[in-house]
Specification:
Mean pLDDT: 85
Oligomer: single chain
CATH class of the largest domain: Alpha Beta
Distance between the termini: 13 Å
Largest sheet: 11 strands, mixed
Number of helices: 9
Helix content: 25-40%
Amino acid sequence: MRLPVVVGVDGSEGSLRALDWAAAEAARSRLPLRIVHASLWEHYEGLRPGADNEHPGEQALAEHLVASARDRVRDLRPEVGVVSDVQPEDPVAALVRESHKAALVVLGSRGRGRIGGMLLGSVGLSLAGRSHCPVVVIPAVPPVAPAEPGRVVVGISDADAPSAAAVFARAQAAARHAELVAVRAWRRPAHELLTHPPFPGSPASPQRRRAEEHLEAVLGAMAEGDDSGTVVRRSVAQGPAHHVLIDAAEGAELLVVGARRSSGWHGLQLGPVNHAVLHYAPCPVAVVPDTYRG
């Protein structure tokens, strides 16, 4: 069974961008698209003192919202099979449940539409920490048109083996006929104060050499059995990981980062790097659970 691309909508401009991105992804991957609106409209309806005949109820607005989204996809991507659903519950809980049976879940990064309760900024952050499949968050500001050829950027973690994020990024690059840029950040220890720039021809720092060796080992393992023909470019840069990744993502089609499950932690561990790129990356960001196997 082909798992769908799921997109959460709330009627905001951000969710329309997420809808368009999800529809394009579904078309490229030849997957069905599932449009979901979830909010506690039953709660809001219950708080209303009486029916207002001049204004539709929250449920009617939600039904109209998803119908409009469905029509938009059918106009823009007629080849994509699309279904929709309105769920009267907390959006994070609803989308976490959807993630059990989705290829990926797509959201806008922020913005509230006409229906109360689905603030995609907070929903996206919470969902990225609890989802069972990759979550793609589309930036609030339309990204700069990707450079040609396209690029998919992935952050390479400390893991010795290729991470789920790296494998997902390679598949995305292959599907898009894009270059894969594997990024490894490194930092000089705080006690090593560099009082002047290194001279030309001076040996690389031990930290940079270790970063380069680690990146080569991970990419070497990824290359085994890979016949996609995807061009892989290496990037080793000094600085905080989130700065390095955000800089590398300029003009990219997608930035991919991983999230790991921690013992005793409910959901995934979203560290400061993930938080930063979700807020500030100039392109769509995919957060991939380390347990994801495609």
